[in-house]
Amino acid sequence: MYNFKNVLPFLDEVNYEVLGNENNVSFNEAVNLDNQHETSIIWLKSGLQKNEIIANFIICNSVEGIKVDFNKQTILIVENPKNIFSHIVNGLLVKKKIATISKNCEISEFAKIGTNCSIASFAYIGDAFIGNNVQIKEGVIIYDGVEIGDNVIINAGTVIGADGFGYSKNPNGNIVKFPHLGGVIIENDVEIGANVCIDKGSLGNTILKEGCKIDNLVHIAHNVVVGKNAFVIANAMIAGSVTIQDNAWIAPSVSVLQQLNIGANSLVGVGSIVTKNIPDNEIWVGSPAKAIQKKN
Amino acid sequence: MYNFKNVLPFLDEVNYEVLGNENNVSFNEAVNLDNQHETSIIWLKSGLQKNEIIANFIICNSVEGIKVDFNKQTILIVENPKNIFSHIVNGLLVKKKIATISKNCEISEFAKIGTNCSIASFAYIGDAFIGNNVQIKEGVIIYDGVEIGDNVIINAGTVIGADGFGYSKNPNGNIVKFPHLGGVIIENDVEIGANVCIDKGSLGNTILKEGCKIDNLVHIAHNVVVGKNAFVIANAMIAGSVTIQDNAWIAPSVSVLQQLNIGANSLVGVGSIVTKNIPDNEIWVGSPAKAIQKKN
Amino acid sequence: MYNFKNVLPFLDEVNYEVLGNENNVSFNEAVNLDNQHETSIIWLKSGLQKNEIIANFIICNSVEGIKVDFNKQTILIVENPKNIFSHIVNGLLVKKKIATISKNCEISEFAKIGTNCSIASFAYIGDAFIGNNVQIKEGVIIYDGVEIGDNVIINAGTVIGADGFGYSKNPNGNIVKFPHLGGVIIENDVEIGANVCIDKGSLGNTILKEGCKIDNLVHIAHNVVVGKNAFVIANAMIAGSVTIQDNAWIAPSVSVLQQLNIGANSLVGVGSIVTKNIPDNEIWVGSPAKAIQKKN
User: Residue B90: which H helix or E strand, with range?
Assistant: First the structure.
């Protein structure tokens, strides 16, 4: 069981106020409002809640409009309840697994693997370079020439460094395969979902920059660059040689045509078909996508 | 070889009429019209057929317009030929494989597996609960905390129970990962295609209710609920916390934005982008999707 | 190191002109313009190049507008520089891997495998027929009844021959599974991307004809036919019984509704939703897709 004392280390550099009972109230499970018990820690989006609040430990940005019992509950008031909830729960309640190399994976003798890495069953690692604290989940395939930084998570079934889709036709109509000699560079703190495909560069590299996040079933073609802390959400299709700048947000099921530039801090709405370059700080939506406003 | 006598057990509670030769006609293969031989069983959509019918055993809803030889062929007249054909062929001609646990899969010692289950090669089962008569195909990954009912089929390469895509940003711009502590509940008679991703709930559960069917390459995000006998067809993207009610039909390549409700018995057309709640019994199509009619 | 003498065998039946220094100039790496060194071979789209050209070996269609040093560089003038570059680089610089059957794959004792095939780790091959010079990459699943020709490449995580998505409802609302007894036929020189799904035919076959190319994360449903040298690009969804004629080009994220015919030499633009048959030699775009012009 945890109580306010256990939570304190996560409140460094955070402005907070604590109300109610700080000492004799404890929790041991993180749930959402629909599943709360007395021993729960929860967070609230706003003070207007249809559910009765019975969880012992409540994180919110205002106590107004919430019916609580100051004798029985701890109420932590912060500006960003979701973030603080995440920090506390990740720190106290999410089980840390010990880093393990499965006996059922296969790793090339020429691979270089850092410290504290997990490589799960049925994963294959070719002649790749992998940093520290990296988690390679079940069935992930990583080919020769892939370089992965620290603290990277790659979810199950994802394929990194396969040949891109590059062909041209001879005058006689025969198809010629363009050579794929490039690599994939994945920087620190990148997370990649399940059943994703990230092709290697044809002649240069495909690059996922620091902190970017790729959701499930995304296609990242050869020579794409995804910027720092950019998000590419589920089922998106990013064609060859596209550059997504830092902090861009590519919503689910978006398609971006080849060689385009998606500006920093831009947002592309769900299902959009992007056929032109997008400037920084703009919101584009539709098929073909058009600017609808500047992002604030 | 089978003949009308073997078919009889599949006609309980079905209104039927049999024409032609019931006794001396037999079949041993189910094919479509383009591939028929004398020893075939076939079904017809309607009586207007450009192909000559040579198959020995014909299931249709009327003999009108069909040229057959009553001495050589058995003609079974039923209201729903496709259903009856499926029942007969599934019963007589589809080989039942003996339930087998492959020596090349990996199962956690804490997993609970019911009777008569098949778990194929390169599948990984964590601390999950699996019912009876379940088929887990090659390369399927099932994580801790997943609960699977009876008669469930999960096709190759599908990942069930990976962390959802949940992040928020600190005021300093740093990305915080939201904790993923929920599970996945898959009820009886669910079938899931190949290379599908079904993320676990963040704090509650992701739920696939009884009899629902999920096609290939579908993304089901955290905390989604798919209703009874609902269909989600290939390449669809269902974002976090969406509820799809019973008997809804989500056509291929549809995207549904987060937290929406898709009504019971509704139909969403191919490639639609759903940005609003859909009431029961309606047909919605387009980008953004709009109601086009009530479903009858 | 290679020089013009090594390149000569790739210029049979090609009209070319060679300028600059043919003899004392050599290369050992193929790169793009951004990554060139003196020891590079490169190709140029056109004569207008912002980058300075320092690569020793340059393939282009005209020397006009390019600043080169005829004493230090070899310039090969051809009509189609990209094709010739591909031929030379594939021949000289792309490492040929020796065909290997991994000790970590599983192959049915009833499978028939030709000569010079590679089958990688965690691949599963059922009772299938596989020709010569076939590359089956990591984690590929190939079911019973699949027939594969010569020189086929199937990338990691792809599933070939799973049951299609075919159901009908009984009058009482119960769902009946349509039997899936067909196969998959993959002809010579086909290449298939990663995490693709190619379902088997329900009663006939799903067929990928000679030389067609399928990109990552594509769904090919039961009984689809993909024509000779046709291209189906990433994240496309081809529904049941669609026929794609020879040399058609299906752009990324396209959805094609069931039983449609996509004409020979047609082109369907990115993200299009195809709801009607497309005649030969036309370009269709949009949702629903409409003809925008004849292809020349």
Answer: helix B81-92
For residue B231, list chain C residues with Cβ-Cβ distance below 8 A: 167
The pLDDT, as a whole number, for residue A29 is 94
Answer whether A35 sits within 8 Å of B219, measured CB to CB.
no
Active site residue C180: no
Rounded Cα distance between B278 and B288, Å, is: 12
Question: Does B163 contact A at CB distance below 8 Å?
Answer: yes
- ipTM exceeding the 0.90 mark: yes
pTM score: 0.94
Name the residue facing A141 among C83, C87, C139 (closest C-beta). Answer: C139
Q: Chain A: nearest CA to B111, how far in angstroms?
A: 16
Burial of residue B50, with CB atoms counted within 10 A of its CB: 0-12 exposed, 13-18 middle, 19 or more buried: exposed
- pLDDT > 90 in chain C, percent: 85
CA distance B138 to C197: 13
Cα–Cα distances in angstroms (integers) from residue C292 to residues A67, A257, C162, in the given order: 61, 19, 36
pLDDT of residue A233: 98
Q: Contact partners of B by the rule of 3+ C-beta pairs under 8 A? A: A, C
3-state secondary structure of B85: helix
What pLDDT was estimated at residue C296?
Answer: 62
| Chain B closest-CA separation from residue C131 CA (Å) | 23
By the 8 A CB rule, do A92 and A2 touch? yes
Residues of chain A found within 8 Å of residue C253, distances taken between Cβ atoms: 237, 253, 255, 273
Per DSSP bridges, beta strands B289-294 and B282-286 are antiparallel
Q: Give dist(CA B150, CA B133) in Å, integer.
A: 6
Partners of A141 in beta bridges: A124, A159
Determine whether the interchain pair A203/C94 forms a contact, defined as Cβ–Cβ distance below 8 Å. Answer: no
| Cα torsion angle, C86, C88, C91, C93, sign | negative
Could you count the other beta carbons within 10 Å of the beta carbon of residue C295?
13
